[in-house]
Automatic annotation (TrEMBL):
Keywords: Auxin biosynthesis. InterPro entries: Amino_oxidase, FAD/NAD-bd_sf, Flavin_monoamine_oxidase. The keyword Transmembrane does not apply. Residues 30-292 form the Amine oxidase domain. The lineage of its organism: Bacteria, Pseudomonadati, Bacteroidota, Cytophagia, Cytophagales. It catalyses: L-tryptophan + O2 = indole-3-acetamide + CO2 + H2O. Belongs to the tryptophan 2-monooxygenase family. PANTHER family: AMINE OXIDASE, FLAVIN MONOAMINE OXIDASE. It holds the Pfam family Amino_oxidase. It comes from the Bacteria. This is Tryptophan 2-monooxygenase. Signal peptide: none annotated. Pathway: Plant hormone metabolism; auxin biosynthesis.
Length: 293
């Protein structure tokens, strides 16, 4: 009932963490105006400090040494990643190489596997980058002209759980009573359940989840349907899945090497924290890597 069935093949410790994190009594906070305000504020601060930030640069190669040289290519466009944030412009020209005294690498571990690293990382780091289990996630979004879930079913925010393929349906937790309709997350699933949607086209994900909603709330909802879209994070080369989720044995076998620096290359990102799959974990890892340096 907590969207944890698809997580049930994980290591016991990870399952306990997941159960605590997704306790129905847990309070979650969001940022009014959108979560991207958080990185945007960091970006503004960095600009004020004169720190150069380059967007659309894909790291492809690391030449390690007292100074490590990072090689970049132009970012590969992804269907889901084509929109740049407010005020964020593409760089005028690709900055192909950067030589650095210290490097903090925060890309997902599976994405790091295609990096050309010379000399190679230590065997146990390579094993960790190779084996650390990442789960997938898929979300399908349906826009409706009116908020039938509120007006007809008295649902204000929260989720519906079903054994239909959609599984977990989330309703907007803002703009209650709004007259401009709203967007329902008609399916938000992880791991094996998310992997299933990967095989489907965007169009059929929308179609199947709209059918599920019609089964639950009645055929009449189709009249108010406007448009739908979806995102499967396993299909995205920049995320390569939802998040690290430690499989059985991985706490014992790999955890010691997840955070381990390789000379002047430090590993950040939520996967290297104790709050895997949370923004809080990415911040925790950011503080740890800063302290390491
Ligand atoms: C579906 C979903 C729902 C979530 N819900 C929540 C939630 O409700 N609350 C919460 O706290 N957390 C949630 N999370 C988790 C949260 O998004 C992560 O914990 C957080 O984004 C991790 O930050 P990060 O900087 O470690 O990694 P990321 O945000 O993944 O950043 C990694 C960056 O590296 C870039 N990158 C990848 N490869 C390269 C390369 N070769 N060169 C250059 N750049 C590269 C990527 O483009 C990306 O910008 C959710 C995640 C998903 C997928």
């Amino acid at each position: 009932m907590l969207n944890l069935e698809s997580r049930s093949n994980l290591g016991l410790i990870q399952q306990i963490v997941e159960t605590i994190d997704h306790d129905p009594k847990a309070t979650y906070f969001g940022i009014g105006g959108g979560m991207d305000l958080l990185p945007q504020r960091f970006y503004e601060y960095l600009q004020q400090q004169g720190v150069q930030v380059y967007f659309n640069h894909m790291l492809t190669k690391l030449d390690r040494g007292t100074k490590t040289t990072l090689h970049f290519e132009a970012g590969k466009p992804q269907a889901g990643n084509t929109m740049l944030g407010h005020g964020v412009a593409a760089p005028p020209a690709l900055h192909k190489t950067v030589a650095a005294d210290e490097v903090i690498l925060t890309i997902p571990f599976p994405a790091a596997r295609v990096l050309d690293v010379n000399p190679a990382f230590s065997p146990l780091k390579r094993k960790t980058l190779r084996e650390l289990n990442y789960n997938g996630a898929t979300k399908v979004f349906l826009q409706f002209r009116d908020r039938f879930w509120e007006t007809k079913h008295n649902i204000f925010g929260g989720q519906v759980i079903t054994d239909l393929a959609s599984r977990f349906i989330y309703f907007p937790s803002t703009d209650f009573g709004g007259k401009d309709g709203g967007v329902v997350i008609s399916s938000f699933v992880w791991a094996t359940e998310a992997a299933m949607w990967v095989a489907f086209t965007d169009e059929s994900r929308v179609e199947y989840t709209l059918n599920d909603l019609a089964k639950i709330f009645g055929e009449g909802i189709r009249d108010s349907f406007v448009v739908g879209t979806s995102q499967s994070w396993s299909n995205d080369i920049y995320s390569t899945g939802e998040a690290a989720m430690l499989a059985a044995g991985q706490f014992m076998e790999l955890e010691g090497y997840v955070q381990q620096a390789e000379d002047n290359i430090h590993f950040g990102g939520d996967a290297t924290s104790f709050k895997i799959a949370w923004i809080e974990g990415a911040i925790e890892a950011g503080i740890r890597t800063a302290l390491e340096i």
